[in-house]
What does this fold into?
Amino acid sequence: MLLEVESLNLWYGEKHILKDVSFGIDAGEVLCIVGESGSGKSSILASIMGLLPKYAKVSGSVKFKGKEILGLAESEYRKLRGRYISTVFQEPSAYLDPLFKIGTQIEEAYIAHFGKKGAKQKSLQALKDAGIEDAERVYRLYPHHLSGGMKQRVCIAIATVCDPEVVLADEPTTALDVSVQEKILALFRRLRERGKAVIIVTHDFGVVAEVADRVIVLKDGQVVEQKDVFSIFDYPDHPYTKELLSAL
It folds into this structure.
């Protein structure tokens, strides 16, 4: 198993956010974590990446290639983030820096791990891999020149420029229109075809139907159901899963 989460518990102060969450994912697989807002989905990704607030308390295990990464020193997390495990954040407009050109921001992610040599070429290729045909033009633009869908593609380019093995995506299609959503989801399918492990957090079972191999249903910080994508649609067991599906 490429990434294994075992008995993950998380507290924000006295509030118990995640309760004994366990799952694993292998290369060439897309796992979707589904649940309503506030169920703890994004907190799972933050726990994996070591991006929790200082007041958080966490226990359990997160292993990447058999090595424990939960609770690493910040210097060790920096070696891991972007290079081996990367994140596509929910709101690209908040993530991209308005003061820097797109090319600079992608290069920064690459240079942090590999140095300046070849950074531009790798950045342009990352843009092309993210579905941006006129990569040279976009490379020279600022974020405010781009549409929401294009910004999300740029964020995917930043997340994949170092060719990580695991890509985490937090509500990657939120606020995008249907045609743009489909293009973004196609990018994640291509990542799977390239042998990447992809974890997508979503509240949308339409997204699940498009890309998932397996599904985790999360309610109030607990995994209430975990199945392959066909079984979750055809034979849901938990009443909460059935409720979510009925909302389609």
Observations:
- The longest strand covers residues 15-25.
- The chain has a mean pLDDT of 94.
- The CA atoms of residues 148 and 175 lie 8 Å apart.
